[in-house]
Specification:
There is one protein chain. Helix content is about 35%, strand content about 15%. It is an alpha/beta fold. The strands form two sheets. It has a six-stranded parallel beta sheet, with helices on both faces. Helix 3 links the parallel strand 3 and strand 4 (about 95-100). The longest helix has 14 residues, at about 50-65. The chain is globular. Mean pLDDT is about 90; it is low at about 120-125.
Length: about 230
């Protein structure tokens, strides 16, 4: 049995991994999906004080309180910022690190610095300048799109502005690592941080690389393909 810790993205919640979680359980693994403070299932706790460090602490505390070791740690989208920031705290507990269509920041980079033309500047709600509205996403059917978009919450701007702190580059850590890229998202700019990270992983001996032909919301749109890649890692 392997313990998977799956970290969701901006404007989302752990619910996005519900089908992946079920499939990992069925395959005999443990799957934990922490909810990040102020968004998703914990959107009732939002506030201008929420930043990237808050979300890093959410994940670090789950791993420590659950006493998890030898984990597969996955960051989806903005979750790549979070899992990267976790490394100086729990990197010794990681067996394999997975970035799922995610940012792979260097020390001192923020999510806003990596978005590219896809999201050059946040369109802030004029009533609450610290909240960033969600980017709408299309799924396979109108019903799925409605289900997903009505669960997407505002994102505290501090989580996107705060740079990550990392003592050494991701490539230099002793665990193995994988990048999984969504290759069929018409809304994604060619200069996005996701494409840049995927291009690096595809050509680096320090990474394994996979593609899934779908749009960005891989955990919801292609849970079975994603689960197959994850279980093959272990």
């Amino acid at each position: 049995m392997t313990s998977f810790v799956l970290v969701h993205g901006a404007w989302g919640g752990s619910y996005s991994f519900r089908e992946v979680r079920r499939q990992l359980f069925a395959a005999g693994h443990e799957a934990l999906t922490p909810s990040l403070t102020g968004i998703g299932e914990r959107s009732h706790l939002t506030g201008p004080h929420i930043d990237l460090d808050t979300h890093i602490t959410d994940v670090v505390n789950m791993v420590r309180y659950e006493d998890l070791d030898d984990i597969v740690l996955l960051g989806f989208s903005y979750g790549g910022m979070v899992v990267t920031g976790c490394l100086d705290h729990i990197g010794d507990r990681v067996r394999h690190l997975v970035y799922l269509d995610a940012f792979v920041p260097a020390d001192g980079q923020s999510a806003l610095s990596l978005f590219g033309r896809t999201f050059p500047q946040p369109a802030l709600d004029p009533g609450t300048s610290w909240l960033v509205p969600a980017i709408p996403r299309e799924l396979d059917t109108p019903e799925q799109t409605l289900w997903a978009n009505e669960r997407r919450s505002f994102q505290p701007i501090g989580t996107l502005r705060q740079p990550v702190s990392l003592s050494r580059p991701v490539d230099d850590w002793p665990f193995t690592r994988t990048y999984i890229k969504a290759t069929a998202d018409p809304t994604e700019a060619s200069d996005s941080g996701f494409w840049a990270a995927g291009a690096h992983a595809r050509t680096s001996d320090a990474w394994s690389y996979h593609e899934i032909e779908t749009s960005h919301l891989i955990p919801i749109r292609r849970p079975t393909e994603l689960t197959a890649i994850l279980t093959a890692l272990v």
